Amino acid sequence: MSAEWVCVQRQQDECRRYLDQFKVLDHPLKQSTITVLESRGTRSKVTTAANGSTLNSSNSAAMPAAALSLDPLNIAFDGSDPLSQFAKQQVSSFGKDPLSRMAAEMESNLSVSNSAASGARKSTSKPKEPANLLELDLIEPWAARRGAILNKYTTSEKLSIVTSFLTGGETIKPQTTMSEKVKYRLEQLDDFEEGSVRQMLDLSQQEYVVKIEQLNHELVQAWNQDQRVKALKIAIQCSKLLSDTSVIQFYPSKFVLITDILDIFGRLVYDRLRTKADYLLPGTREMKTLPENFTPEMVSESAKETCQNWFYKIASIRELLPRLYVEIAILRCYSFLAQDEFGLALRRLTKMIRGIGDPLVAIYARCYLCRVGMGLTLDRTYIRENLDDVLMIYHTIFNGGIRSEIARHRITLNGYISLYLPALDWILQGVAILTTDSQLDDILQRCKEKKNPALLLQSMMQSFRSDFIASRANHFVQILSSVSVEGLSRGQLFRLLGSILSHTPPPIEQRMNVLASAMKTISCMGNVEEFMQCAEMWAQYTSQHFGIKEVDSFLSTVLQQMTPNRAYEQHYHELQVIVDKIVSNAQDIHGILALDTFLPMLDLFQKEPIKLEVCKNILTSYRNASACDNAIINDPVVTNALMYISRVLNDSVNALTGEDERRQISGLVCHFIRKVDFGRDFEQQLAFYVEARSVLSNLDSALSTLIHSVNRLATSTRRIVKGQHTQKTAAFVKACAAYCFITIPSIIDVRMRMELYLQSGQVALLNVCLQHADSCFEAALNLIPEVPRTVEIDGKMQSTEGFVKTFVVNFLSTLVIVPDNPTQGVLYLLRLLLEFIPKYPFESTSSMLSGIYLHVLDFLSVAAQEVYPYHIVNVISNDELYGSDPKFIAEVNELCCTVCDKLLQHLKLLLESNALRAQSQLALDLFLKIITGADLSVDKMFTLTVNLWNLAVKNRSVIEPKQLQTVLDYTEHLAQVTQMESQRECLWILLEKMKSRL
């Protein structure tokens, strides 16, 4: 051996800290606060130090330098951080960014010039008054409904389109006189002979939409090329397409596509008229563009004449439907002619629509009229008139002619009735704006008196205010239970009502009666599919507003409907939604889990993927409901229910399960485990953990949580008996230790097993279960060679060397108080550690192994002391067990020599590889360990110490400049406090040699 290590007895405080120690009055990271006090002509700073004292900086010469050594940014920005300082500058500079600041400055300059020209103005202005119904924000925008209509009303049948603008341009002949020009334009409007009009047949829905988009493009292109008549003809031909109901189920989508083109046409006409309507600013000769809120008096006569010409052209269209649609499209242009023209035009067009014979075509024309009118005026009279006309002809929807038409199109009456919903919903929504409850009651009364009023009732529930529906929930249930529902299903109506009441509940006194009456009707429908559609919505209403009894009754009804003939196999989605809503909205989730109908409800899910999703959602809802409270689980029924759900999740985990899925399931199950608490009944608690271990064998995190929970249970037992175990409690903590020892091998992750073995051994040691502790420690050390060199963490490969070092340091600190097993020899566990540590594949350039050996020297230095720094009650550590016996001390010294030799060998390898920095650092570290724990009166050790210092000084350029001085100061500190005379003398001699080399 090149080293002859002899441990010395020393005081524990001799080497607590290498650096100088000093007291601090507050946390060193606490920031100082600077308050800037400004007054006229003076400015001073009051600095509040970390300890709370204040220093006045008005006289900076009197302030200590330490008080001013703040962050440079703090000094530059007067004590505040840069972002706060910039924010103050922005506030004072009118904006939050440079562009906003520039805009604010321009507006400020403009306001100053305007005030100078026209006098002082008021700083505040009145908010803009709404000019039409859409600006009231009381109605859902059409754009929000447009996509839903296009997605819902589709077809696979072939479509056709009639147009003359998709095959090429048109010929334009010159006109010289005004009469010829007018005559030619009228001829163009009627130019629909066979030679110019082309019918495209057998178009798919996608091809039809493409053709419509081409028409849209042609219209805009013609307008930009000043071909106004051509643009008008395209609008007319597009409007004519709305009279075609050959593919009737596509009609609502066709209406959306065509009216989009008409809207563009109307906007082009309006913008064109406005550009031509420049007016003379009163008192000046300057022409100005019309403002947004212009009046007809501001419009020039030429612009009015042009506007009238547009309406004359449209009035000359011979067919009713295109004449209606095109005039509605440019209805906004009436604002150029007269102030009150909108109301008159809207009522006139409402009466003209009465000439349309097909009720479907007519109601969509009324829808377009109401949609355009709502964006023009606040008047609602025409909307009510349109509704009156709809109710007047409502019966024709069900007459024989319509039924023959439906049969010809091979669609059901239900499918045909649903075509009316988008248009009728929009009209009724417009009627409901700013309407009193009594007026809505009148409309409801008129609607329910109609034959087959289901369509009207459904549209009313979708369009009227939800609070109006909720306050009359009983009445609606009675109506829906008794009226004829031809054309729609009763289940569809009750589903809609349930959706409304889930978000806007009825008055408290009505809620129970509403639920009872509705469920009575729903359960008697005789159609399982309709029942499930309704139950899916009423599940939320039931769980939100009622207790356990009503929820149990609701689930019982669902089970009765689903069990016969295995009907549940066709309704997994609806059942899943019901369970999710019941659990997520439950006021008492423990009560829900304890219901007799809950587990039978879960048994209906026979498909594993669906059952897995349902169980995952249940545990997620439980975690969300119990995350913010301290509620615990101690009901065996609830525990069994959650255990059953956890078993389903555990059984779904296999080798193909993704890491994210495994982590999510583990988190849910672990939350459940932590919530189970039987209080002082520790035996029942341990029995639960035993059952959970048998159920959750596929989840490492769940098993880890179980082990932590059992260790906590053993620690709680010790705390209750205050460390003095009885025969019963001793047997219980041994059972806990045995549980942990036999559970840990089931975990796949090696690192997790090592940590759990170490923790379980520490808990066993705390409870004086020495045999169990030794077994855990030995099992942990045996796993060191199995630790992989790298592991994947967050998608990146990282080395495990840091983990191994941390584990060894934790183990050594525990090993200080672990008594030796008489059958294994002196420091058996340490020898086992020294045997297995080299088997880990350390990097050749890594300093981890040498760092571990340095910590082992620390441990051996403590092991040689007469009294150890800490103990466990009732555990006899090696200081008491051996009593500093010379043979024991000799064994410790021998181990120190062995470890020191390994470090010297590593120093030699570093020298050969020219790693000067690592070599110098290791030399300094070993030097400190020797002067702290070894007897320097031994010649070999003293010589080794001097050589190590010389080696570190030799390469002083590669280490920190202050490090050598720190080591020198620490050596002097040891020489002053060491009690052994021989050690003190050696330290002073060593100190002289050290100083001579600096």
UniProtKB/TrEMBL annotation:
<dbReference type="InterPro" id="IPR029705">
    <property type="entry name" value="VPS35L"/>
</dbReference>
<keyword id="KW-0653">Protein transport</keyword>
<dbReference type="GO" id="GO:0005768">
    <property type="term" value="C:endosome"/>
</dbReference>
<feature type="region of interest" description="Disordered">
    <location>
        <begin position="105"/>
        <end position="129"/>
    </location>
</feature>
<dbReference type="GO" id="GO:0015031">
    <property type="term" value="P:protein transport"/>
</dbReference>
<comment type="similarity">
    <text>Belongs to the VPS35L family.</text>
</comment>
<keyword id="KW-0813">Transport</keyword>
<feature type="compositionally biased region" description="Polar residues">
    <location>
        <begin position="108"/>
        <end position="117"/>
    </location>
</feature>
<dbReference type="GO" id="GO:0032456">
    <property type="term" value="P:endocytic recycling"/>
</dbReference>
<keyword id="KW-0967">Endosome</keyword>
<protein>
    <recommendedName>
        <fullName>VPS35 endosomal protein-sorting factor-like</fullName>
    </recommendedName>
</protein>
